[in-house]
Write a structure and sequence with these properties.
By secondary structure, the protein is α+β, with helices and mostly antiparallel strands. The chain is 28% helix and 25% strand. The protein has twelve helices and 21 strands. Helix 1 crosses helix 11, helix 2 runs parallel beside helix 3 and helix 3 runs antiparallel to helix 4. The longest helix is centred in the middle third of the chain and has 15 residues. The protein is globular. The two termini are 43 Å apart.
Length: 441
């Protein structure tokens, strides 16, 4: 009888908060494998500690499905895959394939592929009566003789994200101009740039009105467990530019938001894994889907959720990755409040030479290399730093976030109250709901 294969935990494109899951997998005794196109982080709070990753498998490009398939074959030949995890959109399809082949719970590769296509998602929601927004492809819209919607619409990639690639337009002239501008924008993150270019298509959707929030969930074999709602800080210069997140966010329409997001999961067939669902919430009327992400939220959301509930959030994420029903007792606790702030350089800054964060913050990290030229703009692609702040109440959190923004030192000077540093806080920041996390079947 052949020897049993050793159990392995596979991370696909290990970066940022994924190191927390890698560390938890290592603690459980797994052989930890990273399939990576980019290098493992060696600096900052999300650097990969020595000894956490046992093996790095080089990926030339995630867009070459044949090559990625061969790499998965090799891993499966040598190991019993006990768990998988990724937070990089370009690796979600390969991860679903790996889970299927390993016999782990999954929404299936076919479902994940559909969910990552915004045009297909909108069509599925229309079929279930879960959206009133109309949409079309950019190619079709460019053939219109006159504007095809009643009001403004948002042009965005069918796959991928980034506010620099999103444009609000309200006429054919504006649409053509936005299409030309989108073609000229350089996405500085090479992984996301390659992913967006590989798919290429853009969609045009009617603009939803209201407040943009997101819902964080853990889905275990068909059961949708709502962890909480995340609010956003946006730029006062351009509200399309997100400059921070706060968790949990006590929205007065909490129950309606949760019910709607649960229905989205069912309509799209998402049955297993973490999800990060962006929705637009008007003062009244239906909650509309903006983006459905079959992965954990980015930036420092994992840290913020853990801080809020006083738990290591990597533990339930790793449970879910291994097909284990996570212990969600922490959702019954009264949460603290935590935020991850995104910081822009001041107007006129041509380069970043140094950066330091005030006391009482954590997970401060530079997002641009020191010494390299900055663009001089102030959009999502120009963020130079991120840092986490935690407090006991929403009011204290928002006071602390203002203070940290002003006192973070950039190139030897506090950022202060410069125009790029001014934000619009979440609308309902001074209230609480009785239940921050819902456990929904």
């Amino acid at each position: 009888m052949p020897n049993a294969k050793p159990p392995a935990f596979v991370l696909l494109e290990l970066l940022n908060h994924m190191v927390l899951v890698a560390r938890e997998a290592k603690r459980r005794g797994f052989h930890v494998i990273a399939l990576n196109q980019g290098p493992l982080l060696t600096e900052g709070p999300f650097a990969v500690p020595e000894g956490v990753v046992d093996e790095v498998v080089a990926v030339t490009t995630w867009t070459d499905t044949a090559e990625v398939g061969r790499l998965l074959d090799d891993v499966l030949d040598r190991y019993e895959v006990a768990g998988t995890y990724t937070a990089f959109e370009g690796a979600l399809r390969p991860e679903a394939v790996l889970r299927e082949r390993s016999g782990l719970p999954t929404s299936t590769a076919a479902t994940v592929t559909r969910v990552l296509d915004k045009a297909l998602v909108r069509g599925a929601l229309h079929a279930e009566g879960l959206t009133e927004l109309r949409s079309t492809t950019l190619d079709k819209a460019l053939t219109w003789d006159s504007w095809g919607f009643d009001g403004p619409a948002v042009l965005k990639p069918a796959n991928g994200t980034g506010s620099a690639l999103c444009h609000t337009v309200a006429s054919l002239d504006e649409l053509r101009s936005a299409a030309e501008e989108t073609a000229s924008v350089t996405v500085t993150n090479p992984l996301m740039s390659e992913y967006i270019q590989a798919h290429g298509a853009f969609v045009l959707e009617e603009r939803a009105e209201g407040e943009l929030v997101s819902v964080e969930s853990l889905v275990h074999e068909g059961e949708v467990h709502i962890v909480g709602i995340t609010g956003r800080y946006v730029s006062a210069l351009d509200p399309v530019v997100e400059l921070g997140v706060c968790f949990p966010y006590a929205h007065p329409r909490h129950t309606e938001i949760v019910d709607r997001v649960t229905a989205f999961h069912r309509a799209l067939g998402l049955t297993h894994g973490p999800t990060h669902v962006e929705v637009m919430v008007p003062e009244e009327g239906p909650v509309e889907l903006i983006d459905f992400n079959p992965r954990t939220a980015g930036v420092g959301a994992v840290v913020c959720i853990g801080n809020a509930y006083g738990t290591d959030y990597a533990v339930p994420l790793t449970d879910l990755a291994c097909g284990i029903r996570p212990d969600l007792a922490f959702l019954d606790r009264t949460p603290r409040n935590s935020a991850d702030l995104l910081l822009l350089p001041p107007p006129g800054a041509a380069v970043m030479t140094d950066l330091s964060f005030p006391d009482g913050t954590e997970y401060g990290r530079a997002t641009k290399p020191f010494g390299q030229p900055l663009s001089g703009r102030a959009d999502q692609l120009d963020v130079v730093a991120m840092v986490v702040v935690t407090a006991d109440s929403p009011e204290e959190l928002h006071r602390r976030t203002r203070e940290v923004r002003r006192t973070t030192v950039f190139n030897g000077e506090p950022l202060g109250d410069n125009p790029n540093n001014r934000v619009i806080a979440p609308r309902h920041r001074g209230t609480r709901t009785s239940t921050q996390g819902d456990n929904r079947a």
